[in-house]
Amino acid sequence: AQSVAQPEDQVNVAEGNPLTVKCTYSVSGNPYLFWYVQYPNRGLQFLLKYITGDNLVKGSYGFEAEFNKSQTSFHLKKPSALVSDSALYFCAVRVWNFNKFYFGSGTKLNVKP
Amino acid sequence: NAGVTQTPKFRVLKTGQSMTLLCAQDMNHEYMYWYRQDPGMGLRLIHYSVGEGTTAKGEVPDGYNVSRLKKQNFLLGLESAAPSQTSVYFCASSPTSGAVYEQYFGPGTRLTVT
Predict the structure, then answer these.
(1) Which among B43, B49, B77, B52 is positioned nearest to B62, based on CA atoms?
(2) Residue B4: closest CA among chain A residues belongs to which residue?
(3) Which residues in chain A touch residue B50, judged by CB atoms under 8 angstroms apart?
(4) Which residues are bridge partners to A25 per DSSP?
(5) S-S: B13 plus which of A47, B27, B81, B86, CB 3.0-4.6 Å?
(6) Angle, CA B99 vertex, CA B92 and CA A41 arms, to 5°
């Protein structure tokens, strides 16, 4: 069975500090990994994805994520957090020839001034 | 392009009432999905469709039905609403041809069943 885990319900960071939001996955087959952000009362917005190639992928709003096959992780990172980054973040995985995405439970990021 | 739109944005139902949620996309996507979002549970897939005229069950399909009569529309029906169906419902779409494409989400419908 495919699954995604986001071990932290909430992450608190001060503005200007680096941030990390963790994601681990369990799949049978090669994973395709995604990060989405959800602002209050809005739908999910795509941030970035890993399909193949370079393990470090860059996305929107200065975010990046590192794919680590041996640790089955895909952590979201940003070198310097902004207050406007405060939102709910979801990790998702999809496997080739499967039509479904599997989402983690979400991590609330709080960036304080 | 409007992307993915959902109608209505808010709805309050009484137990036992029925309603239909409409999702429309103008990106010519083959795949469409219905999710529900509940606090602490992330997104759970209700039903999905891989093309016009086809539908399939997700992980929480009970109490819901769907139809995809036109490629651009995906309807989610509640025949007899229950308080457990109080949730925020999201529709999403995705192009065909493999797993490399991300999903595009609508703004959501907040449903309360009293």
Answers:
(1) B77
(2) A43
(3) 99
(4) A4
(5) B81
(6) 25
Q: Kindly identify which residue of chain B lies nearest to residue A95, measuring between CA atoms.
A: B99
Q: Do A49 and B102 touch (CB under 8 A)?
A: yes
Mean pLDDT, each 10-residue run in order, chain A (113 residues):
91 98 91 94 93 91 95 97 97 80 93 96
pLDDT, residue B34, reads 97
C-alpha to C-alpha distance for B33 and B88, rounded to whole angstroms: 14
Contact B90 A90 (CB under 8 A): no
Q: What is the mean pLDDT of residues B105-113?
A: 96
Measure the CA–CA gap between B71 and B31, rounded to whole angstroms: 9
Do residues B46 and B56 make contact, with C-beta atoms less than 8 angstroms apart?
A: no
Residues of A in contact with B103 (CB under 8 A): 34, 44, 46, 92, 101
A34 in contact with B, Cβ within 8 Å: yes
